[in-house]
Amino acid sequence: MLSRQFVRENPDTVREALELRGSDDVDVDEILSLDEQWRALKSRGDDLRQERNEISSQIGDLKRDGEDEKAEEAIARSQELKDELDTVETEADELEAALEARLLELPNVPQESVPPGEDELDNEEVRRVGFDELRDLPGEVVPHYDLGEELELLDFERGAKVTGGGFYFLKGDAARLEHALIQFMRDVHREQGYTEVFPPIPVNSDSMTGTGQLPKFAEDAYRVGGSNDEPYEREDLWLCPTAEVPVTNMYRDEILLADDLPLKHQAYTPNFRREAGEHGTETRGIVRVHQFNKVELVNFVAPEESDNRLEELVREAEEVLERLGLPYRVTLLCGGDLTFASARTYDIEVWAPADDMDYGPDRGGRWLEVSSASNFEDFQARRIGLRYRPERHESAEYLHTLNASGTALGRVMVAIMEYYQNDDGTITIPEALRPYMDGQERIEGHDPVGESAVGAGKKE
User: Fold this and answer.
1) What integer is the mean pLDDT of 450-457?
2) Mean pLDDT over residues 185-192, rounded?
3) What is the pTM of this model?
4) Which end of the chain has fewer CB within 10 Å, C or N?
5) Which domains, ranges and CATH numbers included, belong to the chain?
């Protein structure tokens, strides 16, 4: 979060940041007014406390000097001051709570290098990789959702029956491929110096608030029990929307040492989000679903290192796609597309060649975001009370946090099924994954199951 001092001293900077983001739902003047009222009450409280202390110290002297009447007047005045002080402190606490609530709604201030723009169409392309030597593709690439059903790899109907829309089954070689991707990504990032953690999947409200999911994005999250409209305290657990939440909060309210940094953690988790699947063109297939797997990369660094670490973090996530031989691009997000907590973000988008969509590359197909690498600077650290000591004898300071997906497995699966598709409808397994699949080179599909499958390709 932004500190109240920063907002107080830089209101125009905050207003410009909100304008760059296209955000008009936070009133900076209201925050400044609450802060001014709170500081006035704190000052009044200090004056009352000082006056009461001075009077209290006089009461004993007055009684010893036999001035009982003046002592009684002093006692009465001391009680008046106490009553007024109680009122002032109560009002100050209420104002501070309101101020903190408004500050939690303020997004991070984008770095100066973040370009202006309204949405993803205004993001700046940084580089494309892998388009110089594309593999030979079928004349017409079958979309992953159709191919997945034809090969009995994806089962959307039974997923919806078991849980609901936005959930699906991976079957046979598709399930094996997903597990292979998870292990492959974990190995890649371990080579890059990441320490692996396996976090709890449910997280509490403090953790969700710390990384910025609450209060702004409560409707997007899956709450464990009850509805999202009820107070958080009643059922204070949420299903993990991203491993960024539990891993970042590992060190909440702690002080790390400079020798601990940079601290690099990776974590595989299933993730759950309500918002996925509500975007029209993305409802088919496994691009936007409510449950998905990914390996998350979380970094804790000294402030002066965070910009360089972001560039390295992007490269670490890119390495997954490079080893898989998948074409992709990197874009720098504009202000309007920047996430709530981020000061600067790069998106890594893999190329899926099947669907001919307006925002795809020149060769057709479309871009699928598989990683957002973000520098949050000290925004999250302030929310979770995470600091470090540059030297053991020095005062603790807020450190910087960064994270990236390394990468989103479902969308990488889409890219593999479409880019590595063959004329005969089979799927070539990328060489990097074959050691994780017992040397298997192709996915040819499976027979359907059940009475309804007879006559549709299943042998009787």
Assistant:
1) 68
2) 98
3) 0.91
4) C
5) 4-104 (1.10.287.40), 120-451 (3.30.930.10)
